[in-house]
Amino acid sequence: MRCLHEQCKNIYGRPMRSASQLRDASTDGRLARSAGTRAAVVDALLALLHEGDLRATAPRIAERAGISLRSVFQHFPDMEAIYAAVADRQTSRIRALMRPIPQSGPLAQRLAAFVAQRVLVFETIAPVRRAAVLMEPFSPEIAKRLRQARAVARREVERVFARELAAAGLGQRRELLAALDVTSSWSTWEPLRAQQGLSADRSRSVVARMLGALLADRG
Hints:
The protein is built from nine helices and no strands. It is mainly α. Helices cover 75% and strands 0% of the residues. The radius of gyration is 25 Å and the shape is elongated. The protein starts with 18 loop residues before the first helix and ends with a helix. The chain folds into two domains: 63 residues, Arc Repressor Mutant, subunit A, CATH 1.10.10; 141 residues, Tetracycline Repressor, domain 2, CATH 1.10.357.
């Protein structure tokens, strides 16, 4: 027969696919649908958080995603897995915002660049971070991710202000690093914005002023 495997054509004149090709296509389709559903769940939770629903439940996530509750837990074993997926998405967003800050150069320039970057990150992640801090005591996954985020932030402080920390001497270095870390942290930023009602620009000025006072005469 002339019509064999790739030489065969269907009624539309296109080559017919083999059984293995059909199986591969079916598998690819299922994987794509699964990835799409997982993304929809993550998108739904993020949307709810941005709207102020800081304790979004699985039924509300399913409703927002336009899928059944059963479908949610077919793709995620539990809420902790959903939180992990959201954390991964947030980590990618933060990395996209980060730009290397030189370790050398005048302190004023490094300080301005450092504070500007912190403000950009904090303003971007604010709704999700508020929910994460609220749920931290009850979610091992969220607690782990926040510990990691805080450690990364502390290392960045240590890197950018290495010269000033070295000038502080062994006796004061640890205290200075702790002070710089907490002053430039979310736990300082959030009260300025949410409790004192300062704008992002005013809050940035306050943080820069506090960091500048800590670093005065350290260069």
